Amino acid sequence: MNILIIEDEKPNANRLIKLLAELREDVHIMGVLGSVEESVNFLTQYPHPDLILMDIRLGDGLCFEIFPKVELHCPVIFTTAYDEYALRAFKIYSLAYLLKPVEKAELKEALCMYDHVIQETNPNKALDQLVDYIKSKSVIYRSRFLLPYKDGYKTILVSSIDYIYSEHKITHLVLDDQTDLIVPFTMDELEDQLDPVCFFRANRQHMIHINSIYSIHNYFNGKLKVILKNPLAGEIIISKEKSGQLKAWLDR
Fold first, then answer.
1. Are residues 171 and 240 in the same domain?
2. 213 pLDDT higher than 70
3. Which of 98-118 are b and which e, b meaning 16 or more Cβ less than 10 Å from the residue's Cβ?
4. Is the pTM of this model over 0.70?
5. How many CB atoms lie within 10 A of CB 154?
6. Are 58 and 6 in contact (CB under 8 A)?
7. Pick the residue with more confidence: 210 or 122?
8. CB 156: neighbour CB atoms within 10 A?
9. Euclidean distance between CA atoms 43 and 17, whole angstroms
């Protein structure tokens, strides 16, 4: 089995190599890469491995930056110290999401998953099976936020959010009582974490809750203008390309 390790911390990479050697006799480590740039260069120049063990936070960014640049032909086991990327990870060919320090038993179980889905001689059929397996996983969307407050923390229920906006690369939650709160997530991360039945990514700066909409109006060039119930929200313009998605979302 050819395995590629994408991990920017040498002790963690060495631990994975040691565990793999203990679990499988047929493992060949194709390389250890520590950055998005290295990974893209490798995967575009060399044959893809059978499996990738991939850290999420790398030296030059998040590993998710790799996937728009490379069409992967193998599954991924994510290894990370952070649990907030799990939903985003499972949208990719992810077999497992292991939190550091990776335990031998958890890695063994993940490798067994690989054996289970990659059992056909036809690689395309095996990959289709893998995709079906991943899609069958139940997705649990975020229901609350735990945010710093004075000398402690407070819980914000997702159901109390009217809309979300980004300004100067800072993400804000606006609640139904017009409270404006800053959260340490990007809009892309929140789009993955929040239930798409309730939230719609209107544009790069706005995400709206379905119950926050007051009215929708035709705009020029096929665009739509959305007015929210919150008087502080202002007008939100939906592009021509996204107008159809908005209508479909509201017409479920």
1. yes
2. yes
3. beeebeeebbeebbeebeebb
4. no
5. 11
6. yes
7. 210
8. 17
9. 20
